Amino acid sequence: MKIVIDGIFFQIADTGIARVWRTLLEKWCDSGFIENIVLIDRGHTAPSLPGVQYYHLPPFNYQEEALFSGKLQDICNQFNADLFISTYYTTPLYTPSVLIIHDMIPEVIGLDLSEFWWREKRYAIVYASQYITVSRNTAKDLLKLCPEVKASQVNIIHNGVDSIFSPASAAEIAAVKYKFAINSPYLLLVGSRLSLNQYKNATILFQAFQTSKDLQKLTLVCVGGEITLESELAALASDINVCLVRPTDLELRCLYSGAIALVYPSLYEGFGLPILEAMACDCPVITCHNSSLPEVGEDAVIYVGGQDVVEMVAALEKVQTPTIRNELIARGEEQAKKFSWWTTATKISQLCLKTIENNKNRPQKQNFTALWQDFRQCQVEELKHRVLLGELEWKNAEANHVIDHLQAHNHNMAGRNAQLEVENKTLIEQIERQNLQIIQLETNNQVLQIELETSSQQIQELSNTKKTIKRLCKKALKKLFAFTGTKIH
């Protein structure tokens, strides 16, 4: 017997669903059931456990879900798998599947069900042979929202509480409080604070703090969730000492044990694991009376309305009353004992064996299998067309980019040409002016040449006149000296 488990959720997030699957695998390692399992490990994100047979794959590509059904079927065929289980809504082509439904949150709170994982969730529900829900409420919602699912196919198997969650000693609590700088009594808020459509509803707790000076003396310790406080909550937290921490499970055990109470005001849950962990650590719980939460808490917790701030303030005051607090701790301790991971793991393994046996004696749904393979093949073709369309759009965008570049270049060249034409016209005008100046200079030069020639002639004439006068003077002197008898020296 072989069961292929796709460990895809370990790639997606390290949240409650990952904790559930990690614990189930650990219990199956302890019981020996792990020998029947092949765990698909995507990108080395699955936990490393002794005795597990891993099949390593690269990280999941969200755009190739249809193609991956074929790959999953190849893996199932390689190991001659009798059953397939996905940690988060992947499917093969024809190997029977058991699907664990942790919640129906997207469908109930009105998320966009055309988004990738919610669409794949719907496909996985259609494909599965058997269903496991973690609460009666989740089973009820599944049957209501997915009418093709038969009640006989739905198996309610509650989550358990890990044995690590038990009351911590005073010294352990003090050490963890010191590490996280918690210097006053505190309330605990575990997990996402708002999440999708704000269904986690932490706003009501922050509003309660705002209305009570006594509550503002306390610290609000927020475990997990966003790394920084959401803007909606930060706007309400000016008078609140908020401490954001990301503890290990051992440290979380101490935080539960030392808290005044866990406040879990969610408007919808598929199970509510923090409630169970808190009760196992002798931590009183305040939560809302909706969805699966009363299944987990029963009469061992204080319930409030999800939108009633006054009721929340009253509950926070009530839980600090010693007699009520002690009664909640005692009831919570007994309630937590009803939930065991050993029981959960055993029931799931038994259901897997039963499903495999039933499938051997049951004729295959040939029509459905053929339709399912056709459906996935159509998705493959659609993907190919999407890829081709994407390539064409990319090439078109590149061509448009080149055209835009050429047009811009042409525009720049046209502008440059116009500028050159202006510069050329200016240069021609300058040359014409210079030519006129040259003509004027040549004319002036000619006039000067004529004047120079005239001057030269006049100078020559004056020179000749000077010579004539000099000769005449000599003659006159000779006559004068001859007349007077004076010799010329």
Question: TL;DR?
Answer:
With 489 residues, the chain is of the alpha/beta class. It has three domains: 3-160 and 342-362, Rossmann fold (3-Layer(aba) Sandwich), CATH 3.40.50.2000; 170-339, Glycogen Phosphorylase B (Rossmann fold, 3-Layer(aba) Sandwich), CATH 3.40.50.2000; 363-456.
Mind explaining what this structure looks like?
The structure is a single chain. By secondary structure, this protein is of the alpha/beta class. The protein folds into three domains: about 180 residues, Glycogen Phosphorylase B (Rossmann fold); about 170 residues, Glycogen Phosphorylase B (Rossmann fold, 3-Layer(aba) Sandwich); about 90 residues. The longest helix has about 120 residues. The chain is elongated, with a radius of gyration of 48 Å. The mean pLDDT is about 90.
Question: How would you summarize the topology of this molecule?
Answer:
Blueprint: E1 3-6, H1 9-12, H2 16-31, E2 37-42, E3 53-57, H3 65-78, E4 83-86, E5 97-101, H4 105-109, H5 116-127, E6 130-133, H6 136-145, E7 154-156, H7 170-179, E8 186-190, H8 203-211, E9 219-223, H9 231-234, E10 241-245, H10 249-258, E11 261-264, H11 273-280, E12 285-288, H12 293-297, E13 302-304, H13 309-318, H14 322-336, H15 341-360, H16 366-484
Parallel strand pairs: 1-2, 1-4, 2-3, 4-5, 5-6, 6-7, 8-9, 8-11, 9-10, 11-12, 12-13
Helix pairs in contact: 2-15, 3-16, 7-10, 8-13, 11-14
